[in-house]
Amino acid sequence: MTFIKNFFKDYFHKYFSAKKENLKKVRGFLQKILNEKKVNNKKISVIKMCVIEHCENIIRHSGADGFYTGIKIDHSCILVKIIDKGKKFNIKEYKLPDIKNRIKNGQGGKMGLHIILALSKKIVYKREKGYNINTFVF
Amino acid sequence: MVLKINQRKEEKVVVIDFVGELDSSSVSYFNLKFDEIKKETGGKYFIFNLEKLEFISSAGWSAIVNESKKIKDEGGEIFLAGLDKSAERIYDLIGIEAIIKKFESVEKAKEAILKK
Question: Looking at domain A10-137, what is its CATH homologous superfamily?
């Protein structure tokens, strides 16, 4: 698909169907590329954490059949782009709940977005031709 | 199998060893297995040994927080041990310490429980 390919110029990228069982494959894909590029373990763990949280949200809430995950290593930063054709969702427009209060009351849930926002340096969101295009900067 | 869970009862403590990865693909296995362990052992105090857990997502943390609440309501407690740096970062970030105490090792967690 040319539309998708254009977004992934200079990125290593792969398509995953939206199944929980594929989360391990996503981690494996990221780990392989980041190891090859000699990225340090701390950064790898941060990237895997954020990406998996985002992919879990796509699988559980977006209604998309699958998603493309791409990774590009620049001199100064690492970019991860994730594209899905699910419901429109811009993380930065979402009002986050008071997570610490929820946990005090023994309630799980709603932690993923909090983790993504805390661990990524920047998130750029676009909606084009029915696709959510998220670029995470690390 | 993404996740394996083994259990051992030591004095009044049930130690549960997690091996593998805990994310939304393995949460239902964790819930099922932990229910079995609770019934089987009748335990009140549990140490979740995460030393061999390679990855945990927020879905995994949510499941642990939910179980911790249930156990506390029944008069017991869950403790965590052996977190790696990555798990520790998330533990601190989302404030899990408000409901579950963590220890460096299973032995240290056990000492704290036996003093109760």
Answer: Histidine kinase-like ATPase, C-terminal domain (3.30.565.10)
